[in-house]
């Protein structure tokens, strides 16, 4: 009986869909979408559902004759429920225009109710789904979800950078409908009756790549659902784990080195945070390369503040798993340290403190010299929040112990910056905090403090002397030039004083 209803003939000319090269079976009955290799509808642009380029919707007229409610699952015998499920899934392949809220209202309500019924059917299933059901579910989901994302703000901003922080996100009017499709996908993936070996024929590499493309959606609600769905796929289909990591990594590469435009970086990093948490020790070389080539360079883009919380979590996870990576991470952070963006700089300081909390003394000693120079530069920042944030490091007992154990190296580097703050910073809070840090050093090791103060005074006197010599040299040049200006002769001057770096 079922073979008569569902023709299992495979057309030699049928286009292969994303489901592992299989074609869909055709369902008899008027008004229902077919399950053949050819999609039942074309989008407004003429693209098939499987092409990933659907921007439109079903444009044919829909009426009560060919889109009508079907019986509920509880109203049909168990033997007919699978047949009814396939019919409902086929009808849900019909697409509507959600840009126009007044169009096809009744049909949209019918489709929503069917999606809810299908979700409940999948949720309460007690037997393994046969291949025909798996095939129909994945087809319906792909028809409704896979589409070209609409992002008008980017198309208009060819001449200036796209700002993920300032630009208003696009709220998809179809989201209330898409939500039910995502819920069905999530229920289907998590269902214990969904055999992973069978389902992977349809939830394949192509399916996963199209899901990843949707992470660039302007609608944060869709990205949040995608995050959950992809995480569940990663957990259920172990065979796809390397592929998913590589595919996400490629998105990061394109974002860092080409476009710096993507809406879903935060969500993808959040997924990776959970993945990194599950890495076995010792870490594979592949994972360490991901840290060095991807996560650390993600500090570079201008819009880092949008996803910095998730990025910081991923970085810290690596250091906690392998303390030997602390030196690499800290040096990488210094490499991409912001120069003119004080907001971003404050975030970097917060991340640095978290990394230092997970750092061991031996690793700290490897990077303490460049780190101390960066701290000194932050101490002298004209932006009070940056200077204040780095001075709060001394409230961290872990950092305080590092400084205490290596004060002979650290204090000479940061002492001039502290003195400069005390004597000339415009913010009173920064001055006061600098005095407190100065007192900590003087109380702990008076001899070292005195030596640093003496050297600072000597360097200051030497700087004054050098500046005076420079002024005299320029004055001499001015006098010679003034004397020769009327004669038109070339002015020959003896070599000037060699340049010396400033010590203040």
UniProtKB/TrEMBL annotation:
Annotated region described as Disordered, given as residue ranges: 1-22
Subcellular location: Cytoplasm
A Pfam family annotated for this UniProt entry: B56
Keyword Ribonucleoprotein applies: no
Principal subcellular localization: cytoplasm
Keywords: Cytoplasm
GO annotation terms (biological process): meiotic sister chromatid cohesion; signal transduction
InterPro entries listed in its UniProt record: ARM-like, ARM-type_fold, PP2A_B56
Molecular function, one GO term: protein phosphatase activator activity
Compositional bias of kind Basic residues: 1-11
One cellular component (GO) term of this entry: cytoplasm
Domain of life: Eukaryota
Function: The B regulatory subunit might modulate substrate selectivity and catalytic activity, and also might direct the localization of the catalytic enzyme to a particular subcellular compartment.
Family statement: Belongs to the phosphatase 2A regulatory subunit B56 family.
PANTHER family for the chain: SERINE/THREONINE PROTEIN PHOSPHATASE 2A PP2A REGULATORY SUBUNIT B (PTHR10257), SERINE_THREONINE PROTEIN PHOSPHATASE 2A REGULATORY SUBUNIT (PTHR10257:SF77)
Name of the protein described by the UniProt record: Serine/threonine protein phosphatase 2A regulatory subunit
């Amino acid at each position: 009986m079922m073979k008569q209803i569902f023709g299992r003939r495979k057309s030699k000319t049928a286009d292969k869909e994303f489901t592992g090269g299989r074609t869909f079976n055709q369902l008899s009955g008027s008004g229902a979408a077919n399950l053949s290799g050819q999609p039942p509808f074309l989008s407004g642009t003429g693209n098939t559902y499987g092409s990933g380029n659907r921007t439109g919707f079903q444009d044919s007229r829909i009426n009560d004759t060919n889109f009508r409610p079907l019986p509920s699952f509880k109203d049909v015998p168990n033997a007919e429920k699978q047949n009814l499920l396939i019919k409902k899934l086929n009808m849900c392949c019909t697409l509507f225009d959600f840009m126009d809220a007044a169009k096809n209202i009744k049909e949209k309500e019918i489709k929503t109710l069917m999606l809810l019924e299908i979700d409940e059917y999948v949720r309460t299933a007690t037997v393994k789904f046969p291949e025909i059901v798996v095939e129909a579910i994945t087809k319906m989901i792909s028809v409704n979800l896979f589409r070209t994302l609409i992002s008008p703000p980017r198309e208009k901003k060819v001449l200036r950078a796209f700002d993920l922080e300032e630009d208003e996100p696009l709220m998809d009017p179809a989201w209330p409908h898409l939500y039910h499709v995502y819920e069905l996908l999530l229920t289907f993936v998590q269902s214990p009756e969904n055999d992973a070996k069978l389902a992977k024929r349809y939830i394949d590499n192509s399916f996963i790549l199209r899901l990843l493309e949707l992470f660039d959606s302007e609608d944060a609600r869709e990205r949040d659902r995608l995050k959950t769905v992809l995480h569940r796929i990663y957990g259920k289909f172990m065979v796809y784990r390397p592929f998913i990591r590589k595919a996400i990594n490629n998105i990061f590469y394109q974002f860092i080195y080409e476009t710096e435009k993507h809406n879903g970086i935060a969500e993808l990093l959040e997924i990776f945070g959970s993945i990194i948490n599950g890495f076995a020790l010792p870490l594979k070389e592949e994972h360490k390369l991901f840290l060095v080539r991807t996560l650390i360079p993600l500090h570079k883009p201008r819009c880092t503040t949008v996803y910095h919380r998730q990025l910081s979590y991923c970085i810290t996870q690596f250091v906690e798993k392998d303390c030997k990576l602390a030196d690499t991470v800290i040096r990488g952070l210094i490499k991409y340290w912001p120069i003119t963006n004080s907001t971003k700089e404050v975030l970097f300081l917060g991340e640095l403190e978290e990394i230092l909390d997970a750092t061991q003394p031996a690793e700290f000693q490897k990077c303490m010299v460049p780190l101390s120079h960066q701290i000194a530069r932050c101490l002298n920042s004209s932006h009070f929040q940056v200077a204040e944030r780095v001075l709060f490091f001394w409230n961290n007992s872990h950092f305080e112990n590092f400084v205490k154990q290596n004060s002979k190296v650290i204090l000479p580097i940061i002492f001039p910056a502290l003195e400069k703050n005390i004597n000339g910073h415009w913010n009173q809070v920064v001055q006061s905090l600098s005095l407190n840090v100065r007192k900590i050093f003087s109380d702990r090791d008076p001899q070292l403090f005195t030596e640093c103060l003496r050297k600072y005074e000597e360097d200051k006197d030497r700087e004054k002397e050098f500046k005076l010599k420079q002024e005299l040299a320029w004055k001499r040049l001015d006098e010679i030039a003034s004397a020769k200006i009327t004669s038109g002769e070339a002015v020959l001057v003896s070599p000037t004083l060699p340049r010396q770096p400033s010590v203040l």
